[in-house]
Amino acid sequence: MRGVYAVTDCENLSTDALLPVTEEILRAGLVALQYRDKSGDRAKRKHEARELRQLCRKHGCLFIINDDVQLARSVGSDGVHLGREDCDCKTARTKLGPAAIIGVSCYNSLEKAQAAAANGADYVAFGSFFPTTSKRNTVTAAPAIIRQAKEKISLPIAAIGGITPANCRTLIEHGADMLVVISSIYQAEDPYSTVKEFNRLIRVT
């Protein structure tokens, strides 16, 4: 798992706007797409998740659901991403099966990453590395934690939080395998070219 890991900007985009922009960035080349929608509209969430899953299949991209194991199972996603308020990794694995990809947010905690690895996670995420408007009450992480984690665990490491083509080099240099990006892609004037630039920087063709 290496490259750009996009997270849907459902707070700012309607379904009609989200789907075509997502297909555009999928064409540019993503390693994974995470569906993140915090609304309580279950019908909307299921519809969007199914449509996005089809787009990911079309473009050979992993499709991950944020937080919701039940939704992940019902739409046949490739896996789920878990935060601090979600179920644990072992519970998600039991519900989704051995082939599911399970990611865990570890914020700025090396101990959380080691625990996630021990509990069967497939990748871990650290951040926020830079100021971001996409999430509130974020925990700040320093790039050095990526290198520290590389020495302790063998899982792919994702970096998240305010990442742009202008500031991502230090994360790549510290060993980030995936750059998790929301606003700087979805709110870009040219989302396709922005993803291409990220891929160039992280050396993904």
User: Given the C-alpha coordinates, what overall shape results?
Assistant: globular
Largest sheet at a glance? Answer: 8 strands, parallel, barrel
What's the assembly state of these chains? single chain
Helix content: 40-55%
Q: Please count the beta strands (DSSP E, at least 2 residues each).
A: 8
Q: Classify the secondary structure makeup into a structural class.
A: alpha/beta
**Count of alpha and pi helical runs:** 9
Low-confidence stretches: none
Rg from alpha-carbon coordinates: 16 Å
Beta-strand residue percentage: 15-25%
Please provide the ordered H/E string of secondary-structure elements: EHEHEHEHEHEHEHEHH
Strand order of the largest sheet: 1-2-3-4-5-6-7-8
- Termini gap: 13 Å
Could you report the average pLDDT, rounded to the nearest whole number?
Answer: 95
Features:
about 200 residues, alpha/beta, eight-stranded parallel barrel, 9 helices, 8 strands, about 40% helix, globular
Polypeptide structure, described:
The protein is an alpha/beta fold. The protein is 41% helix and 18% strand. The chain is built from nine helices and eight strands. The protein has helices at 15-28, 42-59, 69-75, 89-96, 110-118, 144-152, 169-173, 183-186, 191-201; strands spanning 3-7, 32-35, 62-66, 79-82, 101-107, 123-126, 157-160, 178-181. It has an eight-stranded parallel β-barrel with strand order 1-2-3-4-5-6-7-8, surrounded by six helices. Strand 4, helix 4 and strand 5 (101-107) form a beta-alpha-beta unit. The longest helix has 18 residues, at 42-59. It is globular and about 40 Å long. The two termini are 13 Å apart. The mean pLDDT is 95.
